[in-house]
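Technical annex B. To support the medicinal chemistry partners, we prepared a structural model of the target in complex with guanosine-5'-triphosphate, based solely on the information shown next.
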Amino acid sequence: MDYTIVVIAIFVVALVAVGGALLVIPRRQVGPAEKKPEVERSEGSSGAGATAVLEPEEAEGGTAVAEPEAPVVPAPPPVPQIELPPPSAGRLVRLRARLAQSQNVFGRGLLNLLAGDKLDEDTWEEIEEILITADVGVTSATQITEGLRTRVRVMGTRDADEVRKLLRAELLAHINPDLDRTVRTEPHGERPAVILMVGVNGVGKTTTAGKLARVVVGDGGSVLLGAADTFRAAAAEQLQTWGERVGATVVRKEEGADPASVAFDAVAKGLEEGVGTVIIDTAGRLHTKTGLMDELGKVKRVVEKKSQVDEVLLVLDATTGQNGLRQARVFAEVVNVTGIVLTKMDGTAKGGIIIQVQRELGVPVKLVGLGEGPDDLAPFDPEAFVDAILETP
Ligand SMILES: Nc1nc2c(ncn2[C@@H]2O[C@H](COP(=O)(O)OP(=O)(O)OP(=O)(O)O)[C@@H](O)[C@H]2O)c(=O)[nH]1
C-alpha cells in the first residue's frame, strides 16, 4: 500500500514537471519571431533600387517577415533648367567697374600727367608713351597727343575737369562713336540671321558664341547653335552646354567632320525650327593662310546656299596685343569680317587695342568680353568705355 502511494506520488511529480516544461519551451520559441524585422532603406530609398538591409541576428536564424515592397517608381529624368539671361542693354554699364579696374593705369596715368604742374615736351612724350603702352598704336597715339596738345593750348586751360573733358573728347573721336555697332541678329522674314564666329583657338570663340546666344535670348530672340569647330570635340561639348542652358538646339557632328556640312545643317535646322538667329562656331585654325581661306570660304559658300551670312564676327583676345593684331589681319584678308569681339578685356590694361584694331581693319568693335561669367559679354559702347577709363561718373 505504502509502496503504491509512493509510486503515485512520483508519477504526479513527474507529470507536473513535464507539463511545466512544455508550457515554458513554446514561449521561448515564440519570442524572437514576434519581433518585427527592421528594414532600413539606403540613402535615396524613395527611388528605384532601394535595398532592404536585414539585421544580422535575423539574417542568421530568425524568421524575418519583410514588409511588402512599395512599387518601384523610376525617378523622372532631370528637367534642364532653362535660364532667362538679362537683356543686352546696359550691360557695359553693369560691367563698368571691371573695365575701370583693368584700364585704371591707362586712364589715371594720363590724367595725372595732364594735371601736373608743368606740361612741357617731356610730359607730352610721356603721355604718348602711356598711349602706346596701352596698345593704342603709334599713329593714333601721336595723333591723340597732338590733338590734345592743341586743344589745351587753344582753350588755355589747366583746370582738371576741363582737361579731363578734352581728353575724353579726343579718345572718343579716335574710337569713332559714329560707327554702326549693331550685331545683326534680326531674322529676314522666314529666314534666320546667320552669324559666323571666326578666330584662332583659345581666344574665347566658343565661349563668346555661347554668351552671344544668351544676349540674343535675353533680348527676346531665339537661337540655334552650330558646332562647326569639329577640330576639337570639347568645343562641341562646350557649345552643347551653352545651348542647353538657354533651351537652344545645338547642331553638331563627330570630331573631324566637315565644318561646312555642320554649318549647312545648322542653317537648315534653323529654318526648319523657325529660329531667329543661327550662330556658327568655326575652328579657324591658322595653320596656313590658304587652309584657313579654304575652310572659312567653304563654310560661307555652303551656308549661302540656304541663307545670307549677316555677320562674320572676328574674336580677338585683348591680352595678346600685337600677336592678336597679326591674326586679325590674316582673317580680314580671307573673309569679310563685319565686326570684332574683343575678349578678356577684364584681364588687360591695354584697352587701347580697340582704337588700333578698328583703325587697322576698318571694322567696328561690336562686343567686348569682360569676364568668364555667362553674361559677361556686352555690346561695346564707346562713351561708357571712355568714361570707365577716365572714371568719369
Ligand atoms: N577673363 C576672361 N576670360 C574669358 C573671356 N572670354 C573667354 N574667356 C576664357 O577663355 C578661355 C578659352 O575660351 P574658349 O571659348 O574655349 O576659346 P576658343 O577660342 O573657343 O577655343 P577653341 O574652342 O579651342 O577654339 C576660357 O577659359 C574662357 O572662359 C573674357 O572675356 N574674360
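Notes passed to the chemistry partners:
The mean pLDDT is 82.
Residues 201-207, 229, 232, 235, 343-344, 346-347, 369-372, 376 surround guanosine-5'-triphosphate (CB under 6 Å).
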